[in-house]
Amino acid sequence: MHDFAFAAALFGPLFFGLILHGISIKLGWFRALLVPIDRGAKFRGQPLFGANKTYRGVVLGALGAAGGYALQGAWPALQVPELRDFSTAGLACLGFGIGAAAMVSELLNSFLKRQIGIQPGAPAAGPSAVIFYVFDQVDFLLGAWIVVLPWVTATVSRVLWSIAFVTVIHQIISLAGARLGMRSSAR
């Protein structure tokens, strides 16, 4: 399996979580979970993460990923070989962990942006704009890779192809989400 196909098979189901979260934003589902993770806490006078990082994102990201990985289990040829021995329940549990870790790892990016004065949902300006744009696309890979490391070897090629795959797919989903009113911007 080429490393790009490997990255797509390993992290493709993770996007079910982002899609579920987008649908819930559009339809107003799970409002009880719309509680900011930082609960208004501040560091150096700035919010830790901002009001847009809520428990709903983490929970639905995890649940959607659990469903995505469980669904992928019905077609072993679409899975990375290292995960083919997992049961459907095992894949769902692994997917839940991958999804939760991915969503939590986005908090570092939010923290950094709040500390330099970038408002939630706003793009960075100047030289940092490109850096934050790329980081916005792939920040959740850090948590996802950490969870899969006990089963999957992270080679330089696999990591780089996973960054390429996630950057492209994340942008496509963001564009679709913005056009469908699930997000405020396509970034």
Concise summary:
By secondary structure, the protein is an all-alpha fold.
Report the radius of gyration as a whole number of Å. Answer: 16 Å
Integer average pLDDT = 92
Principal-axes shape call = globular
Number of domains: 1
Structure description:
By secondary structure, the protein is mostly helical. The chain is 60% helix and 2% strand.
Keywords summarizing the entry:
187 residues; mainly alpha; two-stranded antiparallel ribbon; 60% helix
Topology, element by element:
Layout: H1 3-11, H2 15-27, E1 42-43, E2 46-47, H3 55-72, H4 88-115, H5 128-138, H6 140-148, H7 156-179
Antiparallel strand pairs: 1-2
Helix pairs in contact: 1-7, 2-3, 2-7, 3-4, 4-6
